[in-house]
Design goal:
binds glutathione; 10 helices; alpha+beta
Length: 228
């Protein structure tokens, strides 16, 4: 059975959605990042990057959410576009675009808006600008077609869902008005039974909610180390 190392954060929840969509049996393995469990030696053997999600499937260990989505799609043959170079090219491009652009810029925008100890106008504007630009590219594509790769729901839509749910946290409560097509996709995915099952799975474990000194030390190690 697949062991699924997770928390309720955006990257693990994309994988929870995929596991539920596929109906694959899995054992949830909570990693409470606010308690620093991602830095335990036994977890670092699974993901040397010390972050969730990760899975262990027999002798295969996979970390990084988009790699896991692709691994599970190839394993099951589900939620992949049709065969052919064109479809494969589009799948890889959009999956990497979410992994290397949407996720990191939206994540940093949330960080500088809500967690950084100082409000730094340059950083706030740079990450908000880039998050807005990336979400805008997704929205423009979804204005022309139902899903990211055309007519079928795929792992790219799941990857997009993971981060697009954070549009208000990255850009403010009013920001949805700029991305009506992206909002349509998020609302549609939110209504899927697999999302309800993924949320129910997550809610079975009581993750720490306070962002106290222990959480800060576990998640923002840079605050205690001078590099630059
Ligand atoms: N590129 C990785 C990023 C994983 C990541 O940043 N995970 C966050 C939760 S969304 C985490 O584990 N944070 C804990 C920490 O940074 O200590 C992926 O897509 O899986």
């Amino acid at each position: 059975m697949i062991k699924f190392y997770y928390s309720g954060a955006p990257n693990p929840m994309k994988v929870a959605l995929m596991l539920e969509e596929c109906g694959l049996p899995y054992e949830p393995m909570p990693v409470d990042t606010r308690k620093g469990e991602q830095h335990k030696p036994e977890f670092l053997k699974i993901n040397p990057n010390g972050k969730v999600p990760a899975i262990v499937d027999g002798d295969a260990t996979v970390f990084d959410s988009n790699a896991i989505l692709l691994y599970l799609a190839e394993k099951t043959g589900k939620f992949l576009p049709g065969k052919g170079d064109k479809a494969r090219g589009e799948l890889l491009s959009w999956l990497m675009f979410v992994a290397s652009g949407v996720g990191p810029f939206a994540g940093q925008s949330v960080h500088f808006r809500s967690y950084a100890p100082e409000k730094i106008p340059y950083a706030l504007n740079r990450y908000a600008y880039e998050a807005q630009r990336h979400f805008g590219i997704l929205d423009a594509r979804l204005a022309k077609q139902k899903y990211m790769l055309g007519d079928s729901y795929t792992i790219v839509d799941m990857a997009v869902w993971g981060w697009a749910r954070l549009v208000p946290a990255a850009l403010g409560e009013q920001a949805w008005a700029q991305f009506p097509n992206l909002k349509r996709l998020v609302d549609e995915i939110n209504a899927r039974p697999a999302v309800a099952r993924a949320n129910a799975m997550k809610d079975k474990h009581k993750f720490k909610t306070e962002f106290d000194e222990e959480a800060r030390k576990a998640m923002f190690k840079h605050m205690d180390v001078k590099v630059a």
